[in-house]
Amino acid sequence: MKIKNTFFVSAVFAAFAAPVTILFLVSCSEGKADPKAEAPPQAKVRAELDSNDFKVEHPDQFPLAVAREYKAVPALNVTGVVQPDISRAVPVVSLASGRVVEIHARLGDVVKKGQLLLRVQSNDASGAYQTYLKAENDERLAQIQLDRTQLLYSKGAVAKSQLEATETTEKDAKVDLNAALEQLHLLGMDKSHPTPIVNVVAPISGVITEQQVTNSSGVQGLSGANPFTISDLSYVWIVCDVYENDLDAVHVGEYADIHLAAYPEQVFKGRIDNILPILDPSIHTAKVRIEVPNPGLMRIGMFVTATFYGRQAETHAAVPAAAILHLHDRDWVYAPIASGHFKRLEVVTGNMLPNGMQEIVSGVKPGDQVVSNALPMQNTVEQ
Fold first, then answer.
1. Are the C-beta atoms of residues 304 and 256 closer than 8 Å to each other?
2. Is the separation of the CB atoms in 54 and 335 below 8 Å?
3. How far apart (Å, rounded) are the C-alpha atoms in residues 176 and 156?
4. What is the pLDDT of residues 144-184, one digit of tens each?
5. Higher per-residue confidence, 222 vs 210
6. Cβ contacts of residue 234 below 8 Å, gap of 6+?
7. Does 189 have pLDDT greater than 90?
8. What distance in Å separates the CA atoms of residue 344 and residue 325, rounded to the nearest whole number?
9. Which of 376, 300, 371, 292 is closest to 335 using CA atoms?
10. Global confidence as pTM
11. CB–CB of 62/325 below 8 Å?
């Protein structure tokens, strides 16, 4: 009987405690906020038949931006190479043949006009000095004979024809002597200090862009290869390949912007000097030559990008840069096409604009709406 009473009391207590426990748990749970309950419903995307067409359940989570109108001059970008202006390239000529005994400059050096480049031991120098000595002796003898003939003619001992012949001989001797002296001067020799060594100096100031000699090598004078070529690089040529379909954007006399790959932040101006009349038959491109003042940064062989500008401005669109999605080497934007429906459109972008805007060359027109930030939309699509 005692056991039965104990069981009855326990049952009554349990029945009474259960509602109290439930009320306590409910009151505790009411004191804490549930973040999931307060957050807006998650946007869900359902792809339509088109892989770039999506339906979003909560489109208000993706603010829209209206494409602005942007007027820009059409630009054509082509690649090119820095080359020397051949009209400013001067070969260094050795007037004497012989063997190189000294080299005082080498490829790539900057030289000044008159600077010693190399020395050549030459038999031409010895021959030129011997010719000078012979011409000097002949002229001295002709002068002595002329003086004697003039004396005899004054006394009536010789005929006038003999005097005239002697005068002609003396004049010819002077001509030969002057020619021998000129040859010594061309070889850089001093008649008072004869030497078989000929100095070769720089004819202009510039950079040595070609070198054909080494120590102890031979030079063949005017008939052989030039020892050096010096180029004046104060102006250089930019030679670009422009496709046949783009030639209407290039005009002789107009200016182009030059961007060096080595200095991408600097812009140089160059004038279109020539458009070669012959196209490359394999790729149908024409060589366009641009003359550019060289501030000293341009080196022969550098790669550059030349930008040619059209004559009339074109109307393009401008959208926030965040509205453009770079995906698979292409540029895209998301545009609304109906209530809750968005379409991913491929666009061609242009230049970056101030205030975080991006130029759109094609794919979007001024006045079109796009999602102002494409990344959250893309993340939602990928979920």
1. no
2. no
3. 31
4. 999 999 998 888 888 889 989 999 999 999 999 999 888 88
5. 210
6. 88, 293, 294
7. no
8. 10
9. 371
10. 0.57
11. no
Encoded tokens for 379: 């993340």
Altogether, the residues listed in the chain come to a count of: 383
Write the burial class of residue 291 (CB in 10 Å: 0-12 exposed, 13-18 middle, 19+ buried).
middle
Tokens (6 digits) for 245: 């379909």
Phi, psi angles (nearest 5°) of residue 329: 60, 25
- For residue 99, give both structure tokens: 């063997």
SS3 256: strand
All domains in the chain, ordered by first residue = 53-73+313-382 (2.40.420.20), 123-195 (1.10.287.470)
Give residue 361's identity as a one-letter amino acid code: V
What is the reported pLDDT for 334? 93
Question: pLDDT: is 36 or 368 the higher one?
Answer: 368
| H helix or E strand, kind and range, residue 308 | strand 303-309
Find tokens 């401008």 and name the residue: 318
Coil, helix or strand for 372? coil
Please give the structure tokens belonging to residue 186: 């061309």
The residue whose two tokens read 């401005």 is 313
Contacts of 54 (CB under 8 A, 6+ apart): 45, 46, 47, 48, 341, 342, 343, 344, 381
